[in-house]
Amino acid sequence: MIKLTNVDKQYTDHHALNQVSVTFPEHQTTVILGPSGAGKSTLLRAINLLERPQAGQLTIGEQTVDFSQPIANKEVLALRRKTAMVFQSWNLFPHLTILQNITAGPIHVLKQDKAAAEAVALKLLKQVGLEETAHRYPGQLSGGQQQRISICRALAMNPEYILFDEPTSALDPEIEAQVLRILQDLAKDQHSMIVVTHNMEFARRVADQIIFVEDGQVAFAGSSTAFFNRPTQRIADFLDAMKF
Ligand SMILES: Nc1ncnc2c1ncn2[C@@H]1O[C@H](COP(=O)(O)OP(=O)(O)O)[C@@H](O)[C@H]1O
Ligand SMILES: [Mg+2]
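Above are the sequence and the adenosine-5'-diphosphate SMILES. Below is the predicted complex in structure-token form.
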């Protein structure tokens, strides 16, 4: 389980997270929705300690840290290993082959044997239908293919949770569907996932839990069914605004 308790993040001129308390259950998919600037990325980045809130607690599994206290480097590294992030732009290493991109973390961070890491990487590539790209470079692949590779790279680290920050917003609709289908398969396999997306159809079909964030606050946390039943006027307005 990942749990945030009273998490507060203040940028110089913006209160990005305002006393956020939320739980992300294991083996479930939580979809985070909300308008641009709501604090969704800040929330994900706080879980991965890419962003350091000023107050509140973060629990991942057995480990809890208090953001108002100094956090030892060892603790930061241990927490980071429990999650892997997939970003909107796929930032693969351009000078490494696809296989090297996927195995770099397992070999250098997890100290896995090279042959074993490569075997896992090839299996993951097969799962996303890209085994033939193993020896190519990222620049030779399309955006959608590179995003599927980033998902493999995250999975290869065997994280407890995978965090996706708008993983399809830079892709064409047809390619977006391909990538979302991979996320749906991961959800069916009971991976623990947190997905920030603007794709309502994905949220409706795949989310076990929906979190609606606005102005740095959690304005709704509950089932997908409850969310799409338009529980508040604000959520009804948001859902209407997402239609054209
Ligand atoms: N590094 C930063 N410094 C100052 N303000 C920031 C920084 N990162 C984000 N913000 C502000 O915090 C708010 C929330 O940002 P973000 O979490 O990226 O929102 P979302 O992902 O929901 O669009 C925005 O108003 C944004 O401008
Ligand atoms: Mg964002």
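Residues 40-41, 165 surround magnesium ion (ligand 2) (CB under 6 Å).
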